[in-house]
Amino acid sequence: MTAHMLDGRAMGAEIKAELRGEVERFRQGQGRAPGLVVMRIGGDGASGVYSKSILRIADEIGIEARVEQLTTLTSNTTLRSALLQLNANPAAHGILVQMPLPVHLSQQLVAETIAPGKDIDGISIMNAGDLFLGAARFLPSTAAAVIEILERTQTPLAGKRAVVLGRSNVVGKPLAMMLLQKDATVTLCHSHTANLPAFTRQADVLISAVGQARLITAEMVKPGASVIDVGINVLPGGGIVGDVDTEAVSRVASALTPTPGGVGPLTNILLMKQCLQAAWQAIPKD
Ligand code: NAD
User: Fold this and answer.
1) Concatenated DSSP letters for 15-60?
2) 141-265 belongs to CATH 3.40.50.720
3) Given this model, what pLDDT does residue 220 score?
4) Could you tell me if the CB of 261 is within 6 A of ligand 1?
5) Cα 67 to ligand 1 centre (Å)
6) How remote is the CA of residue 161 from the centroid of ligand 1, in Å?
7) pLDDT tens-digit profile of 122-143?
8) Where are the domain boundaries for CATH 3.40.50.720 in the chain?
């Protein structure tokens, strides 16, 4: 068997084209574009690259995006007031706080302060709670990207066995909830899981969000499974690979996302989709 490679770039281009039309419809109806603010606190070179790529994608879609830069010395009190100001600013439909925060700042404070209606990466307490209760509004974008790939490729989920590796708040945990919502039988594995292959071999849909190069070998995959590789690992030589040994696993799986070019390209585009959704929802009802 040779796995069908699930092309995230092609899916991303399709969604971008859909969004461009809808953003234009919003702009014509409302007299202004949807607005996005990326809050960046301190930051190294890598996070600069991240905010630039968000601004580029926003620009391609027609969303008006800007970076609000705070210094590394920002206190929790200042961060809170900056977020409250954005919450009250009608031009900021979506707010994205760039993670990770400097260590002295509280992620919990961000989750408690950011307005749920502007929280386009689903990190607020309210949005996390809504997801848990099965009434999600804004989803964590990487988890949403995985579901988007599964849906666009019509991968059956109801009644299927889905195994997720990784239990972070941004990927593994929300993904498990979303798969449950789609009627999959979900197993969540993590760093303390004993005998990992015994679980992965049962998976009709196997999703790895660990951050360990070549963790998933061919022997760990059920023949015919769909495998989604969320991991991003920089090799000592400089190349980027996922968690899955792509070449070996592609001989066993029926479908597989490549890295790069799988989940990654969809993540930021789905942030834009949720920003547009936030903008529509912000229109006052008469
Ligand atoms: P994290 O470090 O917060 O979580 C990693 C998880 O892996 C933990 O829950 C841990 O328990 C689990 N884990 C560690 N060793 C394991 C093992 N041997 N077996 C099973 N589980 C194990 O990371 P994260 O933020 O959730 O990201 C996970 C990976 O996804 C990273 O490589 C990250 O770079 C990547 N990522 C990709 C995108 C994207 O857009 N493609 C976005 C976010 C994160």
Assistant:
1) HHHHHHHHHHHHHHHHSS--EEEEEEES--HHHHHHHHHHHHHHHH
2) yes
3) 98
4) no
5) 26
6) 20
7) 999 999 999 999 999 999 999 9
8) 141-265
